[in-house]
Each structure stands twice: as structure tokens, then as C-alpha cells.
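Bug #77: duplicate submission created two jobs. Keeping one. Sequence:
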Amino acid sequence: MPGKKKVLIIVENLPLPFDRRVWMESNTLTQNGYEVSVICPKGKGYEKEFECIDGINIYRHSLPAEISSAFGYVREYTYALFHEFRLALKIKKAHGFDIIQLCNPPDVLFLVTLWFKFWYKTKVIFDQHDLNPELFESKFNKRGFFYKALIIAEKLTYKTADLVISTNESYKENAITRGRKDPKDVHVVRSGPNLEKFKPVAPNLIYKKGKKFLIGYLGVMGEFDGVDYLVKAADYIVNSLSRKEFQFCLIGSGPCFEDLLSLTKSLNLEEHIEFTGRISDEDLIERLSSCDLCVNPDPVNPLNNKSTMNKILEYMALGKAVVQFDVLEGRRSALDASLYAKANDIEDFSNKIVLLCDSDPSLRNKMGAFGMKRMQEKLEWKYQSQKLLKAYKKIV
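Kept job's structure:
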């Protein structure tokens, strides 16, 4: 169509369409008259270098094996930047683009945009998924040189961007204060799921494996996701409290997956914890729909305290009561749909799970209904998509 605006989205940490947020953004833009191309990494099940799905042009590149060290990060980012710039040139020639949307981490993706911004006057949107300085501080419990370097990279990304999309109010505040962006140029677009597709189904008792209670987890299994806390909570419940009627279903994968399997084996919990790995949306919805409650074990730290975890919104979309540590944005999202344990206190976290399971089921149902209503009336994607389109309309 004449005058159709063309968008290039660059995301480095997850492939499409696996990255649920970026995939919803891409579909929303496509369905509203934009031509969308995406650069992303390859991943398990997403190995093709090029695919056109639902009218979205997806270009994928390989990445070196993940190594959690300074050398590993430098190698990964250098490799990614090379391929992102190469593919951006290819897409510019094949499809063209007027707007580049950057999805961090990392905060060096702005380097890919400089040529296009200053030569072609391309507009840049920064879709901020993570606070990388806080990520460093949370991991190493210090600041120092690398923290300051990450602050500089973040500020340069803000400076390059004509407009910022924040996933919550904490991130918006960061863009305004640390990033010195005009509040009018910062738009909050949450990652609420599409309730037309992400909705509860009839529970299947097979997932309980003969146990009375099933506790669900969905998400990445990395250093900051606290899944080790959840395994230790299962140990406390099953072994210390002798509550053998509990079954745990952990959905997802990540760099700590093998370590978590080893921890589970060392605690003799293999009969009580099932690790599914990454599974289809249909399977994970059925499994979570079969749970008595769901958990968010993200520990309280500078990163998690300001970040909205997609898993919480997805639990609420399925009408599940939640147990989590008392993280700021977790509470802002769930409100009365959750119980909140003391910061990083595994015993209190465990006791909150047991308390909810031992209480009258009407309490869990009431909490789940509250969360579902909150999603339906405020947080689901159909409301967030309008905010995304408003941001794009402003920059166009």
C-alpha cells in the first residue's frame, strides 16, 4: 500500500516467534498497516535463517555458545552486532525501513542504528526490556567500572532513541531520570498476554502424578530467576515438612537448567519435580491450568525489584493464585492475586505455598478470579497494543 511505514525490530536474546512480547508487537504493527522485518538470534526449533510468518519477515543469525564471563559477553555482543548490521543492510535493500525498534539486552544495539539514523534519518525506538546496570549490580553485588560502563551504554541508547517504550512505571521513571528523556517521549507498554489465545482450559490430573497439589512455574531458568530457591522450597516442603503430597511442574529452560537438574537429584526430589523444558503454548497452558497455584521465585534484588515478570501476568490470565517474594513491580502487577513472602526467605516462601494449599480452595479461587479480572479489564495485550500504536503514531 502507498505510504506504508516500514519497521525493523532488532532483538538479541530470544528468537522469534518464541519471544512473546516482540511477537505480539510485530503482529500488532503488521495488522495495523506497518511492514515489519525482524532480526533475531537462532534458537532451538528456530534455526531457519529466513522465514516470513504472518507477513513478518524474520531474519535469524547464529550466536556463539553462551559463557557467563566478561570475555563471553564481549564475544557474544561483537558477533551479534556484526550480524545485526549485516542483516540490517540486507533488509534495507530488500524491504526498506523508516523506523528501527531496539529491544535490549544488551544496551549496545544502538551502534547498529547510527549509520541509518544519520545517513537515512531513520527514527529509533528503544523498547527497554531490562535494566542492565541493575542486572550487573544484582549479579555481583557491587558497582565499580563495569557498572559505570553499562550506565554509559544505557545513556547512549536513550540519547540515540527518538522515543522510549517502557515495560512498567519503574522503567519509565528510569528513562526520565537516568536517561533524561522528556516524559512525553516515554510510553509504558506492558507485556500482558493476548487473552484470545492465552486462556485457561480444563485441568488434566495426569500432571499431578498421583499427588494432591500441583505447583506451577513458567519462565527462564537463569541466574536471576530464583528457580534454585523454588527447588529448595520444594525440599523444605517435601522433606523438612514431610508433605509428600506436593508435585512441582517447572516449565522452561535456560543457562541454569542442568544445574537445577543436579540440585533436584542431590535433594532426592526427582519424584516431586518435573522439568518439562520448553514446550508449546498449548501444552504449557494445559499444565498451568492443572495447577493449584503458581509461583514466582524471583529473588528481591535491584533488577527484579523494578522489573515486571511476564510469568505473573500469564498466571493471572489463567486465573491462578500466586506466591512470590515481595518485589515492587510484582506487587504492582498482582496486587491481591498474590501472597508475598519475606525477601528471599525460602522458609516463608514455602510456608505461603503450604498455607494457600491447606486453606479453603475458595481463597485460591478468589485470588485467581481477582487476577483474571485485572487482566481482562486493564493489563491484557488488547489494551497494551493501543499504547504501542499510540507511540508509533507519535514517532511517525
